[in-house]
Amino acid sequence: MRLVFPNSHRINRGNYVIKELANNCRANDVTNLIVLHEHHGVPGTCANIVSHFPYGPTIYLILHNVTLQHDIGSYKSSTVSEQYPHLIFEDFKSKLGGRVRDVLKFLFPVPKEDSKQVGPHFEIKSYEIRQGTIGQTEAEREWVLAHYTRTAKKRNLLPEPAAHSTTDSDRTSSKRQKR
C-alpha cells in the first residue's frame, strides 16, 4: 500500500492502542494517520480510518473493488510504477461530497500532466465523518451513513444520478397517482 500512498511510512499496528498512535502522531508532527485493515490479504474490507492532524477531521471508510499492483496482468512484465496516483471524483457535487473529496485529495501529491493511469485502484465508500482526530472519543459526528432510515430530509446531501433522475421521478409520481 506504500505505492498507493506516496510519502508514507508503514507501521504494523500490533498491540498499539489507537490513542497512543494518535499521541505519537501529534508529537512527531505527522499530518495524517491512515489505519488500513486487511482480511486474508485484501486491504480495506473492514473499517479503515483516515485522520488529519492536529485538529481533524477523521473519516471512516471501506475500500471496494481493490486491485493491487500484483493483480494487474501487465505487472509481471513491467517495473513497479512510482507515479503519483490519479484521483477520480465522480458526482462529488454536494456539500458532503466536497468534504470527502477535500479530505482524500490532500493525502496524495498532484500527478504530472503527462502521467498515465497504471497501478492499483479501488473504490471508497465512507460511512462516518468526525470533526476531531482519531483519538478524541468526544469528537462531534459531522455525518453518519445510517442504513434503513428515511432519507427525504437528506436528499440534498446525496448526489442524484443524472441518467435515472427522470425515470425515478416518473415512478414516484405514478405511485402517488395510484394512491
Oligomer: single chain
- The total of beta strands comes to 7
Strand content: 15-25%
Amount of helix: 10-25%
Question: How is the biggest beta sheet arranged?
Answer: 5 strands, antiparallel
Mean pLDDT score: 76
Describe this structure in words.
With 179 residues, the protein is α+β, with helices and mostly antiparallel strands. It has helices at 18-27, 95-105, 165-178; strands at 32-35, 38-39, 42-43, 48-52, 58-67, 121-130, 141-144. The strands form two sheets. A five-stranded antiparallel β-sheet has the order 1-4-5-6-7, with helices on both faces. The longest helix has 14 residues, at 165-178. Residues 163-179 have low confidence and may be disordered.
Q: Which helices and strands occur, and which strands form pairs?
A:
Layout: H1 18-27, E1 32-35, E2 38-39, E3 42-43, E4 48-52, E5 58-67, H2 95-105, E6 121-130, E7 141-144, H3 165-178
Antiparallel strand pairs: 1-4, 2-3, 4-5, 5-6, 6-7
Short description:
20% of the residues lie in helices and 21% in strands. β2 (38-39) and β3 (42-43) form a beta hairpin.
Task: Summarize this structure as a short list of keywords or feature phrases.
single chain; alpha+beta; 179 residues; five-stranded antiparallel sheet; two-stranded antiparallel sheet; 3 helices
